[in-house]
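Hi everyone,

Forwarding the result from last night's run.
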Amino acid sequence: RGDTGSGGSHLAKDNSRQPRSGPSLHQQRQEMKPSVSKPTSEPLSKEKLQLRAKSMRLEFMQEKNEEELLCSMDDLKSTPNASEVIVQSYVDAIIDCKVDEREAIIAIISILYRNHKMTRDDISKSLSDIIEFLDSYIMDSPLAVENTSCLIAELLHIEASDVNWLCDNVQKLEQTGAHLIPDVIASCLKSSINRYNVQEAKSHFEKATAALETLLTKEKWDEIKRNSDLEK
């Protein structure tokens, strides 16, 4: 047993094994895994983004596919201010369009907002400019007030806007189209009732009674309520 022959030399060889050169098994497995990184879309110029917004609208009108709409919006993550530019193009288009296109635009804005692809500020900035200059749009687009009111009714419904904000922005018409102020408020109220119901409209407008009476006078606001059946 004291012999250091074959048995001893065998143990010595076992203890003197050198570490394997090259990548470890773990490294090999990691290298064999497929890449899961997503390709990033290149940022679009404003002109190309506006064209993309139009194609998104046309596709939605044809297919009514919400998932595809959301995916299209996700593809624009690398483009700065994409949601702001897109909502601006839709609000501009809603001024003078047919009913089916108007309803598609309203649905798209609603879907994008409810799915956190568009912010309240994105919508407010674009809509504020439209309201301020409604007087100039009406000459060429007789449905400007009605179409804008339909959009506002939806924004109230999804809580992307409120009547106090509406009053603040309609007040800007005092400089160029003061005669339109009661018409805009009455049209928004009517759209809220027609698209949803009296109770929903009442819940939105009653919260802003003080602002409405300041904007219109109490007598005028009472008249609008009577004409719209809001008090029934």
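Residues 1-17, 28-40 have pLDDT under 50 and may be disordered.

Cheers,
N.
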